[in-house]
Specification:
Shape: globular
Strand content: 25-35%
Strand order of the largest sheet: 16-15-14-13-9-12-11-10-17
Structural class: alpha/beta
CATH topology of the largest domain: Dihydrodipicolinate Reductase, domain 2
Length: 396
Amino acid sequence: MTSNGPRWHPTRRETLIGAAGAAALTASGKLVAQTAEGQPLIGDPVLPDVPAKRLGWAIVGLGTFAIGQVIPGFAGARHSHISAFVSGNPDKAKLLAARYGVERIYSYANFDAIAEDPSIDCVYIVLPVGLHAEYTIRALKAGKHVLCEKPMASSPAEAEAMIAAAEAADRKLGVAYRVHFEPNNVHVLGRVNSGALGEMRYISADHGFSANPDYPPHKWRLEKELGGGGSLWDIGIYGINTSLMMLPGDHVTSASAAYATPDGDPRFSQVEGAIDYRLRMASGINVQGSSSYCYSPYVSRQRYFGSDASIEMQPATTYYDNEIRFEGAGHAPRTYRAGNAESQFAAQVDGFSRAARGEDTVRTPGEMGLRDLRIMEACYASANRGGAVVEIDIPV
């Protein structure tokens, strides 16, 4: 409407309604004041529980995984919050502390002072594997519950020492197997347990990427002292742990493996670049997989074959994009997602906080981490013997 056109003028009734807001007009045109009145609760709505206490967490190690996934994951947590950072880089720690409103910063030199900090209930170890045992044990001795990144340690002996330290301190110890909290993998576990696939017959797993020695997050993985092992220790563990997640109550009775590292590749002077493995289960099925620092692009695939149907997840264990493909049981193939994979980080820390408060058990305890290290050591023993079968008896 132009300035020379007709203008709209509100009527007296429209003016009164607009001005009164919370008033009403009677039939005679008079304004009557309105009052707020409470209404009865209708039905029986399901309301979320209110946490008794949000536990404070210290994040130890501010590398790319901590910054990109772990720390942002706390935004969705209901039982957990970050109360401290531990880092060898004070400038980075201060920058992140300001960004996330974290008041306490520790260095590795004064790490043991966390024992006197009542704001810290739990410690999340996000350091290279070679440092897991030391800082886990120190945190437990400081009286804190500890969630340690996977793999748990550089050796079963270190893992046993970590478990013993937790028992001595009467604190909870968990391994950050986040897949146990990822909604798509949890959904698949539910379908397996419900018999949707029939009897499990075979599982395959492939996990890997191409390691870049010039990229800091990859560089330490190629060093035996910090990485603990090669591709199997770092990325193949996803295939082993996730496969065994689908076989509750079973036993691993033997392991065999063969190295598949490219000949002469200078990246792998200290650790293996690739390995193929097979686990024989007491139920009679095989879990077969591959692990590699030589794949491109990134591979994360799990396949579950049952007597009636099968499920393929590709990707299976990523931070964001996990997907499910169900085939068989008389239905057309269907690809879908059962939830947002990003929620796994909040679910993991909240699950551990609830366990630390005594409200639940630790879903991925230190004993599970030790189990996986023993299985991987058996795979290495087989590969070192040219693929000979190594007999073991490890309950899932």
